[in-house]
Every structure is written in C-alpha cells, then in structure tokens.
Amino acid sequence: xxxxxxxxxxxGVLAQVADxxxxxxxxxxxxxxxxxxxxxxxxxxxEISRFARLPVPVASAVLGELxxxxxxxxxRPAGLTADGRALVATxxxxxxxxxVDPWSAPLSPDLVAxxxxxxxxxGQQPDVDxxxxxSFATGETKVRRVLWMIAAGALPTPSLLIVGDDDLLSVAVAxxxxxxxxxxxxEVVVIDISAAILATIASSAPPDAAIDLIEHDVRRPLPPAxxxxxxxxxxxxxxxxxxxxLFLARALEGLRPGPGWDAFLHYxxxxxxxxxxxxxxxxxxxxxxxxxxxxxxHYLGAGVIGGRxxxxxxELTAQQSAETDWEATAYDGPLYTADLRARPRTYVxxxxxxxxxxxxxxxxxxxxxxxxxxxxxCGGTSFRPGSLAPQSIPGEKA
Amino acid sequence: xxxxxxxxxxxGVLAQVADxxxxxxxxxxxxxxxxxxxxxxxxxxxEISRFARLPVPVASAVLGELxxxxxxxxxRPAGLTADGRALVATxxxxxxxxxVDPWSAPLSPDLVAxxxxxxxxxGQQPDVDxxxxxSFATGETKVRRVLWMIAAGALPTPSLLIVGDDDLLSVAVAxxxxxxxxxxxxEVVVIDISAAILATIASSAPPDAAIDLIEHDVRRPLPPAxxxxxxxxxxxxxxxxxxxxLFLARALEGLRPGPGWDAFLHYxxxxxxxxxxxxxxxxxxxxxxxxxxxxxxHYLGAGVIGGRxxxxxxELTAQQSAETDWEATAYDGPLYTADLRARPRTYVxxxxxxxxxxxxxxxxxxxxxxxxxxxxxCGGTSFRPGSLAPQSIPGEKA
Lengths: 398, 398
Fold this sequence. Notes:
The first copy, chain A, is of the alpha/beta class. Chain A contains 14 helices and ten strands. Chain A has three domains: 5-90, Arc Repressor Mutant, subunit A (Orthogonal Bundle); 109-324, Rossmann fold; 342-388, Rubrerythrin, domain 2 (Single Sheet), CATH 2.20.28.
C-alpha cells in the first residue's frame, strides 16, 4: 500500500493545492475538480471547468498543481494516477452527474418509487410539531432536493451535514443513492432537537448508511464532534429571519473552515421587507446566493408557508462578518414563527363553552394540542377562536 | 364612455389599493392581481394568490379593495367589472401564462423560428465592442429571457425598460409577442449609449412596436422622460460590480416609485469574493434576489464570461440605502472589465516583428481592432501578446 501524503492526509492535499493556486473557492474548489475526474474517462480542462464551476484558466492551474503532487498524470486530456484514484476513493467521490433540470424533469420509475416510500414513512413519524415550524416535505420534493445536490456537483461528498431533519433528508440521500447505485455521502451528520425524529431516521435508513445522529438544540453551538467536519450542509429551518440565520450559522460551524462549500437552504417566500432582511443576514454570514428556485418545495399541508417554499443553493465565502460570530454564544431570542406570534389567543369549546388560553408560552401551546387532548369538561374536540389574551407571566398561575 | 377614476388615472387606482391594504409589494402587487384577472375566466383567490405571488389572505384583501372601487364584481370566483376590464386594457395587461420551465423546456417551432431570426440579426449588427463588455446572447437565450419574464408574471406589462440593449431584447419582446399572438408591453423604453445598436433596433423591430429609443450614457442619471415610468426592467450590464450596480441604479430610476417591481439582471458568475460584493450592492440598492438561474444565458463567443452568464430576477423593496443614491450624480469610476484591466499590453506582429501598444485608453483599444486593421508595416493579421506596457499619458503621443 502506498504511503504517499495524498493517502494519509486527503484534506491536506486539497489545502495544499488551494494555497498554491490562491484559489478563491479554497479546498472546496479542488474537491470539485477531483469529483470531475472521479470517473473512468479522461476529461479535458473545459469539461472540468464547467463541472467544477471554475473558469478554464483556474481549473487548468488546479490541474497543474495536482500534477505536481502526483495526483493527476501528465497526459491530456487529464486523468488520475493510481495515487489519485486512491485519494478520490478515500474522499468517497464517485462519478455521477444529473444533466436535466432536477426540479422539473420527470422522475425515473425507480425514483418515483423512492418518493412513494418516503411519503409512506411520514405516516410513521410523530405528528408535526407546529411550535417548531415543522412541516413535512412531499416524498417527491425530498428526492428532487437530492437530485439538485447531485446536479450542482455537491454530492457525492465525503461528509454531508443536515441541520434539523424533520424532512428525513438523510433517509432520502441513502435511498436515492441506492436507487442510482452510487453512495452519495461518505457519512451523513444529522443534528436535530427531536429524539423522535432521530429514532425515525435510525429505524428507516438502510443498515449500511453511515448516519451520525446527534440530539442537539441548535440554540447552543454545535458539539465539538460535529464542528469543522462536513463538506456540504442542508437545512430547512424555522421560517423566521432569526431562525434561518441561526440554523445557517450552525451549518457554517459544521462545515470545514474556508470558502467554497455549498449550503442548501429551504425557506418560505416572504414579502419584500423580510425577504431583504434575510438577504442581508446571508451576506453577513458570508453566504452568497448561487441558485434560487422559487416555490419548488412542496409540503403536506403547511399552513405557515402555503404549502411551498423556495430552494437556495448558497456558497460560503471568506467574508463572514465578525458581528455574526454565533460560535461563542448560545442564542436566546425568538426563533420559530410561533415565537413572533407570541400573544396567546382564547379558544372556546363548542360543546360546553369553556374557555382556554392557547399560546407558544402557555401550558397549551397550540390548538392542535387542545384538540388532541379534548375539552377537560365535556370531552369535545371542536374549539372556536376567540379574542387575543394577555400573555401569562412565567411562574404565575394562568 | 365611462369617466370613472379607474379609467382616467389607472396607476392612481393601484396606489389607492396598495395604500388601503398596506401591501408590502405596493402598486406592483396590485398590478399582478389585475394581471391574474385579465383573462376571460373567473379566478378563485387561491389561483390569484399563486399567480400574483401573494399569500392567500393578502390576495383576498386586495380583491376586497378592488371590489370596493368597482374594479372587481361581487361574485365568487372573482371577475372584473366593465370598468375593471377597461382599466386592464388601459394598462396593457393580457391573459398569458407560461407554465413549463422557461430555461429548459423545448421551444415550440414558432419560437425556434424567432430564435433563428434573432441569430440572423446579429450578422447585421456592428461588431461587438469589447471595451463596452458587449457580447451577443444567442437567439435562443433571448427568446427564453422573454418566456422567463412571462412565467414570472412580469410580462405583459404597461411599460418595460431595457438599460443597455446590445442583446436586442426589445426586438425579441416584440417578436415573441407576435409569435404568441399577445402584445407583451404597452411600450418598451430602451436606453443605450450606442447609436448603432439603436439604429439596428429601429430597423428590425416590427413597425407597430412602441419602442422609445433613448441614446444615453448611463454614467449620467436618466433623462427626465425616462424616470419613474416603467413597471419592469431588464439589464445585461458590464461584468464588474460597479457596472452592474450602476446599470441597476439607472433601472431603479426608470421604474415607478415604490416596492414590488421586477428587475431582471444577466451577469457572469464570479468567484466567491466578487460574488458576495455584488450581493451586498444588491441589498444596498434595495433589490432582493427572488430567482437565480446559474449559467442559463448563452453567448456567441464571449471571452470575458466563458460564453455563459447567470439570470437573476430581482424585486425592488422599500429599503434602498441612502448611500447608494446615484440619482443626483454622474458616475466617473471604472465600469467595464477593460477599465479594471487598465494596464496596456505590447503586441508583436508575427510577420515583421513590429510592436504595438494595445489598451482600453490607447489609440488601439483591443487586439481585435489591431487584427481588423492589419499591421501597418507588413499587412499581417497575426500578433503575439508581449509584456505589459506603461499606460500612455492622455495628451502625450504614445
């Protein structure tokens, strides 16, 4: 077995090439070039340029440096050496492209079957917790998200991070990979506050899927084991600017340091004012919008966002603002849509007329919880919304 | 003929409804609701919501106010009154949708013919002036840009503004409208620095197209006749952050005041650093990215941008930063890519060895001009790039 540096420290090779070529896309750009070379065919610089989303002279400079390090051989078009092939295998890179539009092209029968199986899983999940802005994407949306990540060249990847996975994207990645016959991630790291969601993932992912499940409240910084580890991130955060910014900040903590890594964000469309607030947050986090597909995510009955949300492909730059350094601190502000609608409302039982105060910081958080429990007096499950109520003071009896 | 306010002051009606409903999308949002109602069929609030990109309760509030003003009748689903139909006709709104993906779906034979005719026009245009970052989009790209504006609900429009039209988008809008049998713009306002481009547009647009051609250098504020006039803007600016920001700032001058108007931007992909600089400029200009399709614009041999550029749909918000108020002042900084590559270069004639200094501020601005002219000594047209040369001082002989 070879003991070349390429094998013992794969990311060291990426960093070395990125430094030598002063690559604005950093290690991530070198990884994209290697992904373009992962197949059996040799590739011309122009093809590599398109696939890696780098200008031709930049892609050529990266190839030159990879030649110097013995990863790429001396022939044209370019191909990997034996050491290069070992490096690519270590990184979990595989030849895979998706050439048609992932959001509108018809799905193959295999992928339609995966979408159906993912829809069936939703029935086994715990009920949506609307206080966490949970809502379940359709199976087709989950499959198309994975195809989009492939089309963008973000998958296959050494390590995928998912911040909040009530959509079971981790399961979708494993099953789409199985359907395509190509493993899509060397590992998947899932961060979620809900033990029930993590249990669903554990029981429904294929047994050979390397999924690291971490129960964690993202109001707090990521645990050390998840930091600086992944090469691509995805999140479908709460639909508030603060929630999106916080989940994205945690995604950035989980990504390897440096520019060029992709972060996928799924987020409901907002009116112009809040929409530009989010854009300002993205800039402050050092994230640039590279692709934005409005309304392509479909949800099963999502009240907050009208059943649709937008899909963003963001790229990390080197320009993260110091003022948004969440790493050091826990977040204690409003986060979920319900937090911003903090004022509780009275609900009246249609059976006996008894009144209940419902609100995110009340003992009864949602009308759904009230309906599930039933009226304590008459057992009725139909309630009429009444007037807004004053917020109860923590520590006092309501 | 009716003398209702709806007919005498169409935009006054839009402003009145936007004010009464405190609509974040302003007049533009009301216009989108009216566009959804422009066809012969009645529309449910849900359909109008999707088409107008407004949440259902917001679309319903706008409909309610339009009922109060006698524009929409009292029935459900909603339909226009006779006054409402007259208002919609005055605004030049027509029923038209484009339901498939405008960037990837196959074109109909009629539209393929339009694309071919637009390609043929390029042969009649003056040569690309690379010092102005000119490059010609393919006919297919021009057609797809128009379809995208239809799919987004931005066309048909009362008034379309094009800031810099070396791509002849104005001609494409007229011809696609003719092919679809639906006029797409009550008027088109074209701002361009090049008399030759304006002459090409005048000679190749259909005789009944209402195109207002304005020869103008956008370094200076728009002439009063073009200000605050249009409802949608499009620009394919120079590929520098300053150039894009300046052309967009002029587009904003040409749009009606208030939020919600769409601005379409076509701009080459940049490395992470300059890319996030552009995003910051967009935020400062009060423009939020609503859709971004990477690499969908194809050009005929565009060196600067590798033959591709990204397509942005931006929406104007109410949050324009005072620090980017270009309206009062002319711009005197670098603008075109060549300005940022200001240092001239020596070229050597391959035939006789004579040396020439080529640069954007030199008597010979580009190597293309040198090749077209030929070597003054031997008539050769092949030149080798040599060393960078010192910039000649204006007023001195080189």
